[in-house]
Design brief:
Structural class: alpha+beta
Number of helices: 14
Largest sheet: 5 strands, mixed
Radius of gyration: 33 Å
Strand content: 5-15%
Helix content: 55-70%
Shape: elongated
Length: 414
Amino acid sequence: MRKARLFDLFLFLFSLVVVAASIQVTPPGNTYIKALLLYWAFSSFYYQLRIISRSGNSNIDYAISYTSSFGIFAGPLGTLIFEIIYRFTVFFYKKKTKTADPGEFLDTFYNIGSFTISGSIGYYLYQLLNPSFQSIPFGFWILILLVVSIITFLSSSFLVFTFALSGDITTRKEAVDLIFRSRNLLDIGKVAITNGLLLRLLQMEKWDMLIGLFLLNYVVSLSFHSKSQSVQNKFERDKFEQMAYQDFLTNTYNRAYMDKMMKELNPSGEFVGIVVADIDKFKKINDSFNHAVGDRVIQHFAKTLKAHLHEDDILFRSGGEEFTFFLRNKPFEQCFSLIEQILENVNHHSVTAEYEDQSISVTYSASFGLYYYKTGQSISMEKGYVYADQLLLESKKLGRNRLSYKNELSLSAE
């Protein structure tokens, strides 16, 4: 971490050297001051719409940068002044809102140094190549895209270097991903178009249009940010809901979700096969080995059940070694055949597990109870589950490793 902080200070000091070595100073006073105030104000407003990505102990800030246009317009010294004012505005804002990282002060110097260097390089590239690009159709925009791409590459390279020094990046793949995948072509295009328009308006001193462009960019970004937050909030709600309904040992649904689905399916009028399945003599497996081996057997059984179920079917872990699943919109014969296939699969496969520093193979069997009927009538899903559980007990009494069933529709037909 100390090396990374030294690199941050080195970038800042090097940016001072770049500025000191520059022949160009600043544009005329009033024009520069107007531009400085506008860029500072809107950059500060836009800071609220930034996207933060976490990398190890560090944050990567993906807020849009206006450095390219301002750097080309103001030159190295003008860019340095802007970056000092803007970055310390952000620093004091973070301090006030208590969102500053522990190393925020040195991060501020890193940002000043890296963006000043990038902006200065953008300035010299533009001055050097502009005469050649003037004769090319859309030459200005091609040049701006080139300058923005190089500045983006440099900024990402600085991040990679400091993250490597701090230990947040440890492999070449992580470095390549950060440089080439953290910003896609659309991001670079958005930055290039925005900065190209800003630069043109600055050069013509069209202050009203410049403010309008800043406002348009802000409003569009605000709308996008709001929608992004809504999507993120929905994702987090769905994730928490999934966690509430998930059995973490088997990655199947749990009993709470089973109760919820029974209420939803009650009025549906579907043909449903309610199946309750249980691993035979499971206590003996735990007693003969240990609970870790028992867990491997439960996981194997859940995986076997999942492999045979269709997309509309729903599997739950309804007890310790007990599973319940709803076979939906299938004729009784198909439900019966599917469970027979599961029985055969369980009987012909074993579970590999670790026990006392060696790999063992455990065989097991399972019993099933199937209750088939049409929902939305006099029998509820909750009652159907009780019937299926009773049929499971019947399979246990008859010797286990079998299926007991009741087809309510065939009885009603009779």
